[in-house]
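We modelled the chain as a single entity of 360 amino acids. Its sequence is:
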Amino acid sequence: MASPVDVIVRAPFSIEGRRLLLLADGCFTTTEAKTAACIAMYRPGDVVAVLDASHAGRSVRDAIGFGGDAPIVAAFDEARARRPEVAIVGTAPAGGDLEPAMRSHVARCLDAGMDVVSGMHAFLSDDAALTAAARSSGARIWDVRRVPEVRVISNGAGCTTGAKVVLTVGSDCNVGKMTVALELDRAARADGVRSTWAATGQTGIMLRGRGVPVDRVVADFVGGVSQVLVDEEGRNADLVVVEGQGSITHPAYAGVTLGLLYGVMPDAMVLVHTAGRERYKRFEHAIPPLPEVVALYESLMRPYKRSLVAAVALNTSGLSTDEARRALGRARDDTGLPAGDLVRFGADPVWPAVRAALGL
């Protein structure tokens, strides 16, 4: 019988330090190709090209404001000329299906002998033609969201190793919860804390090399596998920063948010929000005011423990510097909490507020 820890997905091959091609044709933006954008942010030296005809002729940095100077190219042959070793499906369309154009790019990459990494809900390895292409060329496929079926129920204990847990929680999907988790972990380690971070989504798992794609887990077991994950990551750490998923008020994805919340039982939370976003991405429903979102997360934890939102992390990437500072001031005034953009302005004041809340 499988051990509960077997639910943790582990990379079958490394992508770090290898030549990467990001597949994001027609949509290489931070909102429509968040996987590609995050790989470009945290592996800029590895990315050799982005395939996207709509932004061809520009560099990665020109297109999204960060990520190095790798070129964006219009055609597969141009990308192949850059000698990539691994192709990464850089988009995450609603529903996670493999669209025909993307499937064509994946097939050509496999034919060329490139390993392919995909975080889609539709698995490349279930496509007979793609697996045949991989066998023929010697390429490998990593379906990041293919999670082992391990049935484990949460007992409500959260992390039992003694490590503190902080969870990034969101006002919406695609606001930067993974980025904030990674940046908080960096700040904690720079401050002398024995810290690590736990990946719970496809892009985070690609970067971390392991994790649990909680949105692929059977609903009854989301809490259990989340608890297994924080226990595993907390074995050699004093702090585990957990990448959040969805939003507790999201009409489609609140279920996975609550399962993760009650699985990891955070000691503190950081609310992540995109400055200026008033409605859920691709939905017409309005996002509640931030003080209400803060109060809701805290009230959901109250039956189990005193876990407060320690700070607000704003994603201000669409704003000028002056606009960003004004947005941070509004968030501070509205919530009464420290507010910062960890990518743009550094870890202060968010990390100090988290450290104080955890008593580290």
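As a brief sanity check on the tokenised model: The radius of gyration is 20 Å. Residues 41 and 66 are 6 Å apart (CA to CA).
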